Give the backbone structure.
Amino acid sequence: MTDRSSLALVSARGLPRHPRGAAARLFILLTVLIDATGMGLIFPVMPDLIEELTGQGLAGAAIWGGILGTSYSAMQFLFGPIVGNLSDAHGRRPVMLTALFVMTLDYVLLALAPTITLIVIGRVVGGILAATHATAAAYMADISRPEEKGRNFGLIGAAFGVGFVLGPVLGSLMSTIDLRAPFWTAAVLAGANMVFGWFVLPETVTDAIRRPFSWRRANPLSAFAAVGRLPGIGPLLLAFGLFNLAGYVYPAVWSFFGKARFGWDPVHIGLSLTAFGITIALVQGVLVGPTIRRLGAWHTACLGFALEAVALIFYGFVTSPMLAIAFTPFAAIAGLGGPALQQMMSNLAAADQQGELQGVLGSVAAIAMGISPLIMTTIFAFFTREGAPVHAPGMPFLASAAMMLAAFVILMRARPPGHI
């Protein structure tokens, strides 16, 4: 079979049975892993780099860091539906390979940038390219049977978890060579993956499922409206939004929480994040598929949401650092809920709407990524400041638990048809 666009590649049996199927799926997972690694690579050097470029102290650098983070999330929100619709119209292959090419150039720009303005431009471009997560998820939906989607979305989560672990570690090591070395490393990884994808990635969007590109539907609000018209998906989208809003409490306040509650230094904080990332990757990569096969997507999502609420309540009250670390595997098991919910929503969308749906989900996640840190750090600051009514570093986790319980109730009331 030589035609990359052959409909046989997306038959009911799925692409993994095609000779290049395993390599194509590996490319998708590597793309997500490298993107997550690239984000983590630059975290260790950003404070020093911003201070160097602006001449300001740590407080001023933190403000610039907030600007960079907000601009990154805003671009994900705006461009998620655009990229998703482009992949529905022109195919997953050209969108992903083009994104990797531009991503390589973007990391080179960051490596050479002599001003903070160019760093901001680089993060804006990075936020746009991060919207290709929607295309990666849509590709996974294309090559999966309906009952396999949760497992394959779990593999994407596992790849992101591995990148979450590797990024800061690799970034720290590279920074000992040069402050800009992490950016060059990320550029090499992205470029190498683009070359790999050029040879192994078949197209999955055929004329049978291709949908013309529409700027009206690519508009984030219009895309939300189009996806929202799918029967039964509205409550699931709301639950997905609350799930992400609550889940971002970990990257938002974990380092501050560890220092305030346990007196952890950066090494202990890094080790705790590494433990969490490893267990998340194992759960997403190993447990999601078997659990969905045994319980079904809806029951798995409900189980994951309930466990997440329990984990958040635990971290709201825990005072022992050993217990906090020991509880990490249980907290990671709660990650079952996200891929199961994605499977439910993906199975509600038509074959020509997978990119659009995943773009909307990426926008929802981007909104949560932008809002949650503001909410959680404000709560943390209020309950740890001098003169606070009660010293409670874990209060952001309790607020997140309330959001998670609300998402659980919504999911319980929105039980979909049995075939989902």
Observations:
- Residues 1-19 have pLDDT under 50 and may be disordered.
- DSSP finds 19 helices and no strands in the chain.
- The CA atoms of residues 227 and 357 lie 6 Å apart.
- The longest helix spans residues 58-90.
